[in-house]
Amino acid sequence: MTSTSNPKTLTGDRIEELQQIAGDHMFMHAAQINDWRGSLKIYVKGDGVWVETADGQRYLDAMAGLWFKAAGYGRTEIADAVYAQMTAIDSPPAGGSTIPQIELAGKVANLYPDHGARSFFVSGGSEAVETAVKMAKKYQIINGRGGAFKVISRRYSYHGGTAMSVSLGGSTTADPMGPLMPGAIHVTNWNSYRLPYEGDPVDVAIKCANEFETVIQHQGSETVAAMIAEPISAAYGVQVPPEEYWQRLREIADKYDVILIADEVITGFGRTGEYFAPMNWGVQPDITTVAKAITSGYAPLGAAIATKKIADAFIGGADETFKHLITFGGHPIASAAALANLAIFEREDLVGNSRRLGPYLFDQLQSLYSHDIVGDVRGGLGLLAAVELVADRPSKTPFPADAGLAKKMPKMLFEKNIVTLRAADVITICPPLSINKSEIDFIVNAIDGALTELEHDLGI
Ligand SMILES: Cc1ncc(COP(=O)(O)O)c(C=O)c1O
Fold first, then answer.
1. Is 230 a pocket residue for ligand 1 (Cβ < 6 Å)?
2. How many Cα atoms sit within 13 Å of 62 on the Cβ side?
3. What is the CA(426)–ligand 1 centre distance, in A?
4. For the chain, which terminus, N or C, has the lower number of CB atoms within 10 Å?
């Protein structure tokens, strides 16, 4: 077996060998082994929005990795920053810190609407959610509300893969794991295409938000620590709420002293055209969870960002200490990557690009309504969009599972040289924020072509 190789010059034999090892010894996350064994895509190069596989195929990554490659591929200055930190001091002795960790905390506070904010750095999104929820519960204890342990979240949302975050996710597709976290309570999620209630969308959104209040009243406000939601639920197919929704969540949280957590693991750092999504609606959450785009995926890092009001409660004595520890949370080389990444954000105005080109992407996607199987095009707020496919547009009837969209659609899109991960009934589009108009046109044309083929395949 070859132990090292130049990733850019793989031979057919070497590719076969790698496929064999992966097929025999690897789990892919949330994937059936039989579905990828022998045909795993092995990527060897990336540049901007483009990636290349070991067999020399080029694809436009319309999903920015898994919603994270905000600055695009091939940023050597991030690699340089990581190298410099790793060769200076890769990680500090216990109880100490390093320059990039400190600078990153300052940078995040600078970008966050509450400049007094304090960050607890972790290694990814699930840990950020765990941290935020533990912080909220401890905050309630410090403030004399020790019985407040319940957390309200929304059905069909996604907050991570660890036990507590799965409990909050309310997904119907996660593996069953027995009883959820005690105190995890779910309410109706917002869905702009299939409104959960009849009526004017803004009224329905407020009604959905009011379900948090109903639960708080029913459970007793003294038992509820926090409520958590994604500003735009990507897991639920990119659901952009009207601004009144988050404004109402803020009012409810204030009324009952419940901590409002915005899970911005996908939306944080520019995806919606603002650094943080609730800024679009003039809302300041109490704690914000971030990961993914903070490093553009060049290294694993996440954070629970607490407003000054929340963070200051943890300044005091032993009783006020936040006794939470993740060994590699905010690792210095990941922090160095984050700083170099955020420097690119500022230099190239990637958040402005997201704000300017989001509407362009959304407008171009409207042309797909020429396909009868397109039921809904969602997005418009930054570079995040979705196209939902239906068997019948007037009745919004979904395709039956045996139509096989879950497998056909990603394959057809690959054949048009774009990568989308979640393409089935809902094709999500979340490109690097560095994308330009002609690359957006490439994505839209590819989807257009793939839909024509799908219709042909389905005999429509
Ligand atoms: C909203 C949200 N929260 C949390 C997570 C978990 O993040 P991670 O996979 O980095 O643990 C995700 C992952 O996609 C997410 O979308």
1. yes
2. 27
3. 19
4. N
- Rounded Cα gap, residues 4 and 385, in angstroms: 39
CATH 3.40.640.10 fits domain 76-348: yes
Q: Are 153 and 229 in contact (CB under 8 A)?
A: yes
**Amino acid present at 444:** V
Q: Which residues of 347-357 are buried (b: 16+ CB within 10 A; e: fewer)?
A: eeebbebbbeb
Q: In this structure, what token pair is assigned to residue 51?
A: 């990636």
Helical axes 405-415 vs 437-458, angle rounded to 10°: 130
Our answer on whether the CB atom of 124 is closer than 6 Å to any ligand 1 atom is: yes
What pLDDT, on a 0 to 100 scale, did the predictor assign at position 226? Answer: 98
Residues of the chain with CATH 3.40.640.10: 76-348
Name the CATH topology of 41-62+350-458: Aspartate Aminotransferase, domain 1 (3.90.1150)
Q: For the chain, what is the total number of helices (H) and then of strands (E)?
A: 14, 14
CB of 290 shorter than 6 A to ligand 1: no
H or E segment and range at residue 43:
strand 43-47
pLDDT single digits (tens) 389-409? 999 999 999 999 999 998 899
- Give pTM, 2 decimals: 0.96
Query: Which residues in the chain are classed under CATH 3.90.1150.10?
Result: 41-62+350-458
Ligand 1 within 6 A of 159 CB? yes
